[in-house]
Structure formats: C-alpha cells, structure tokens
Design brief:
This protein is of the alpha+beta class. The chain has helices at about 5-20, 30-45, 85-100, 145, 175-190, 200-205, 210-215, 240-245, 260-275, 290-295, 330-340, 355-365, 385-390, 395-400, 405-410, 420-435, and strands at about 70-75, 85, 110-115, 115-125, 125-135, 140, 165-175, 220-225, 255, 280-290, 305-310, 320, 325, 330, 375, 440. Helix 5 (about 175-190) crosses helix 13 (about 385-390) and helix 12 packs parallel to helix 16.
Length: about 450
C-alpha cells in the first residue's frame, strides 16, 4: 500500500470509528489506538498537501482562522411549525388533517422536539458540502466549517450504503447537558457571563468565528428530516431510519401512531421521561407520516398543515435570597427511577425503597429523617447549578453529578459514579449546596 492509499484507508477507518464512538456509543478500538491512527494520518497529510480534503477526520479539530459567514438561499424553505400548548388544539390539528385528507387513513410520526438550533446539511456524492442555519426560513448562514467539527455529523458516508447522489437532511444542533455544564463552569471560573441555557450556548457556539472554539465545546446533532429527488421512500418515519444506516444520528424515540389517544399517550410518557434525556427538549413534534399526504395537505404562508409542535409547559421557578433561580424540587421517586435504570448499578433495598443505601445515608446526613423529596436544580442548572460548581471544591465528576445535573449525568455516565468511592465527597457536596441554598429539602408535608 503506497502513502496515498494509506491516507484514503485511514480516512475511511477513522470515519467509521468516529461513528462507532459518537453515534453508536460502541467504540471498537481504544482511545490510544485511535489517536495513533489520527497522528499517522496527520503526518501523511502533511507530507502530501496535494491530497488535502476538508472532510478528512483530521479537520474536525477546527481552525484558528476567522471565517465570515455567507448567506445562502435555501433550496427548499425551512418553515417554522405552528405551536400548541394544550390537548384541545392537538385534537383540532388531528381533525383538520382528517378533513384535509377527506377521511383517508393516515399515520402520525411523533418525535421529541429538541431545543437546539435548526440546521440543513447538504450532501453530494456521499460528502458533506454545505451546512446552513435556518435563518429566516428563506435564507440562512453557511456554517459548514463549524459543523465539520461536530463529531456526530458524518463528513463522508460509507461506500455501498445506497445513499442518494444528492440530498438534504435537516435536524438540530444541540449542546448536551454535560457539555453545557462544563462550559458554564469554565466561564464562571474565568469570570465570563454564563449562558442562560443549552440552546443559547449552542447557537452562540455555532456562530463562533473560530472553529477551534466550536470543536472544543462538544456540540451534538440529531437529524430527523430527509429531502431530495431520490430519497428512499414515501414515509417520513422510514427515511430517517435509512439515514441512520448511512451514519447519521437519529433519535431513537420517534414513534408511529394511528389515533389521537396514541398521541396523548406519547405526550404523557415524554412529559416525564424527557427528564432522563441527555439533551434539552421542550415539546413533541407531530407530523403526518406519508410524504404524499403531506404534499396533499400543503402549506400555509408560514407553516405546513401536516405538522404541529406541542410545547411542554415550562416548570415554574422561584428565586432564592441571592436572586438565583431555584426550580421545582425533584421528587425522590424520580431520583429512584433514574438510579434503577443504571445498568449494573448496585441496588440495595431499603424497606420499600430501591434507593441505594449509600444515598439513603447521604440524604440522612443533612436531613434528620429521610425526606420525601430533595430539591435539585433541574432545567435551570443553567445558572444556579453552575454557581454551585464553583463553590464546591470536589472531584469534577461528582461535581457534575451533584450540582443539578444528577439525573442527566447518571444517564450519560453510569460507569463514572461509584457511590462507595464518592460517598464522602457526595455528602459534603449536598451539605454545601444546602448551605448555599442551591438545594433545598422538602419534608413529608411537601414544604421546604
């Protein structure tokens, strides 16, 4: 194998390993082996500048060069969805669809509504050629250079995967809770203003003029809508599943339903379960599944008639004595449920409770009798939890776990938390957060 062939081979191999690691969460080689292959590719590319490729895995690290954004007109408008906050309007949408299809049977694809930044990715001959923000729906900013640093976005599709020669796939660029917490902790330490929420952080990051900054901040992307003249089929649900086989990260929580009650059941399920998702969500998106039926229903001037977004009600927060937002307390049974979900976690029964005994001890340390609930900043780790991070000088893993992000951190890093190892700092973390009024304890009467 000559050096040109080795370069091409290493690029293909590293693309596969990136997909295994960042999308499937199932790496097949060690980090050390990956780094060795990456360094070898970097050395070879330095020897052969004539083989430079912007889609090479080595380019994900970003560049220190400033890049101005060009405005690009969307080939197909990126319309916003009509929003609703109540079931009656969901029922009215369902009825309008039925009437618009003249009683023809139809399916609804239910999806989580990710709270991120809409993005349109364009591929030609299996390679990413352009990434454009939604903008005003007619035109958006070309952020290709920055999107290339997002490791869950494939730069080159695997050969033989039967993808169209040219297509567009849309989705959301997000900042996972873990990345958001880490970023705000760094900004607080450096005396910089904190981001209010993951969506603002993702938006500010994607519009950065320095792609190396984007690469460092750990953005992610979920794709959900495939467009083009030669896409696999007529099913909105099936097309993203096909894209998944090409290397795209697709939400595992899409579901086809066939009745209004099925939609209500999906909403009820995710109104609670979304608390366990590692990225911010703020609702449910409902779309008619058949693309032919979508075309038949058509559009209004602002939004498609075949889709609607159901928004979850925002949880009400109060402010503590320092003016910091404090969200509703986290019920202990929700914490229990999170812990029970951890694969291989050592569960110790405590009466009728399945909370590990270490956590029972930890809570009793500062509460006397075990409280019915402990208040942990949740959606608004955004600020309060990040302030807490700076006041608790303990191991970084447990800091992330105990400062408002306990459920999300457990969900993403179950192997990083051993309550026997971290029991002492965990107890101290809770004490410190109670002292700083970042965490509050509820008694059996449900009051703080």
């Amino acid at each position: 194998m000559n050096e040109k062939e080795e370069i091409l081979s290493l690029r293909d191999e590293l693309h596969r390993h990136n997909y295994n690691y960042y999308v499937l969460n199932a790496p097949v080689i060690s980090d050390q082996d990956f780094d060795m292959k990456m360094h070898r590719l970097q050395d070879l590319e330095a020897l052969h500048p004539e083989l430079a490729d912007p889609n090479s895995p080595t380019q994900r690290v970003g560049s220190d060069l400033s890049n101005d954004f060009q405005t690009v007109v969307h080939k197909r408008p990126m319309l916003s969805l009509a929003n609703t906050y109540n079931r009656q309007e969901v029922a009215e949408f369902y009825q309008r669809v039925s009437e618009g299809l003249h009683g023809e049977p139809f399916e609804i694809c239910c999806e989580l509504k990710f709270d991120g930044l809409s993005i349109s990715l364009h591929y030609e001959q299996g390679r990413l050629v352009r990434a454009v923000t939604r903008g005003d729906g007619v035109q958006g900013d070309d952020v290709t250079q920055n999107v290339r640093t997002i490791r869950s976005v494939p730069l080159a599709l695997p050969a033989g995967a039967d993808w169209p020669e040219e297509f567009e796939i849309r989705g959301e660029v997000l900042m996972p809770w873990a990345s958001f917490n880490r970023l705000n902790a760094e900004r607080e330490r450096d005396g910089e203003p904190l981001f209010a929420n993951p969506r603002n952080a993702a938006s500010g990051t994607l519009k950065s003029k320095n792609s190396s900054t984007v690469a460092q901040r750990g953005l992610d992307a979920y794709l959900y809508y495939l467009l083009g003249d030669d896409i696999p089929g007529d099913s909105h649900y099936a097309n993203p599943q096909a894209a998944c086989s090409w290397g795209f990260q697709i939400s595992k929580h899409m579901k086809l339903v066939r009745s209004l009650q099925d939609i209500y059941d999906y909403i009820d399920h995710w109104d609670t379960e979304r608390k366990f998702v590692p990225v911010a969500t703020d609702g449910i998106v409902l779309k008619v599944n058949s693309l032919a039926q979508q075309r038949s229903l058509g559009m209004t001037a602002k939004s498609p008639r075949w889709a609607i977004a159901y928004k979850f009600k925002a949880e009400q927060c109060t402010r503590n004595a320092d003016g910091i937002l404090v969200p509703p307390p986290l019920r202990f049974d929700v914490l229990e449920e999170c812990i029970k979900r951890l694969p291989g976690f050592p569960i110790v029964l405590h009466g009728s409770s399945s909370v590990p005994q270490e956590f029972v001890k930890m809570v009793n340390t500062y509460g006397g009798n075990m409280p019915d609930a402990i208040g942990i900043p949740e959606d608004q780790l955004r600020k309060a939890a990040q302030l807490a991070v700076c006041k608790i000088n303990i191991d970084s893993d447990i800091r992330l776990a105990m400062t408002g992000n306990i459920r999300k951190y457990f969900y993403e890093h179950p192997d990083h938390f051993d309550p026997r190892q971290y029991l002492k700092p965990a107890r101290q973390a809770v004490k410190d957060m109670v002292a700083h009024k970042i965490v509050h304890v509820l008694g059996s009467d449900g009051k703080a």
